[in-house]
Sequence to fold (344 residues):
Amino acid sequence: MNTLILQPDAPDTVAIAAQIIRDGGLVALPTETVYGLGADGLNPLAVDRIYEAKGRPKDNPMILHVTGMEQVETLCHHIPPCAYALAEAYWPGPLTMILPAREHIPKRTTGGLSTVAVRCPDSVVTRQVIAASATAIAAPSANLSGKPSTTTVQHVLHDHDGKIEAVIDGGACRVGVESTIVDLTETPARLLRPGGVTPAQLREILGDLTVDKAVTAQLGPDEIARAPGMKYRHYAPQCQVVIVAGSREKAAAYIHAHYQNSDRVLCFEEELPLYKNCNPLAYGREADARTLCAGLFAALRELDDPKVRMVYARCPEGEGVSYAVQNRLKKAAAFQIIDAEEWG
Ligand code: AMP
Ligand code: MG
Fold:
């Protein structure tokens, strides 16, 4: 199959993409978070093609992409007032809400659950495609399952060229990490995945918010993941990744003592001078967590190289936007964290 690369401002892009979706095909769509691998979320056969292309476990449900709350009303029931308030505040934007699913939503899409995830993305062309295809578009991140997400059209083609009908080239994704997921089917609402909308922003609307354990820690073998996708290894390059926590100086001392020739250091721009001889790769500025979000997945993809033995990673702290970076990096590291303050 020849994968079409469509330009967002070309006159027939929306019509071509919408026709592919209606016909049960796959179109990778730009969003502000990451590129999504889009298909008709109400057509189980189309959704099956997403699972096949990604190699995604079948119990890992999809997020349905919509144009707004009016469309959510056709997909969900018992929608609480706080869902409208969140949509008013943060849609279109990097926020996914879990709500009770109406009967007609295919079990393929919900992974067999009675709830469904919905989000309105902040990309004009993607919302036009949703509207023109007259369905809700299931669109998980357009990476191969387990690999770092795709934030450029080159990443999408690297993983899916020749396997999907088209990709719309929306340039680099602005936020760079996947949406915040909040479950509104329980009270207080529960944060299942941190993203571009921070816990503080959610609390402004919701008041109370529970943070699910899986956000910050590895679930035990007997624990059930509330977001089924969270139980899988994620975002990881093929080599081992270890987070080195602690002050700049202590972390650098630890890394210098353990560094071997084929290792890499994933660090903040501010730290580059400390790692001149350690093949460093900076993914953003510690002083501006948004740059860390935007750069993380491209960096993890660059490190996904059989020649790399080990990655020592520096991880930001705090509950703001950097919370999402911490969560992705900890998962990429399978929660292996070394406290450099306690070393030596
Ligand atoms: P992505 O592959 O980045 O689109 O991830 C979608 C995430 O949403 C996965 O972690 C899913 O487990 C989660 N998700 C989707 N639907 C639901 C649902 N109904 N309840 C809980 N989590 C969900
Ligand atoms: Mg994903």
Remarks:
- The chain has a mean pLDDT of 95.
- The longest helix spans residues 289-302.
- The radius of gyration is 20 Å.
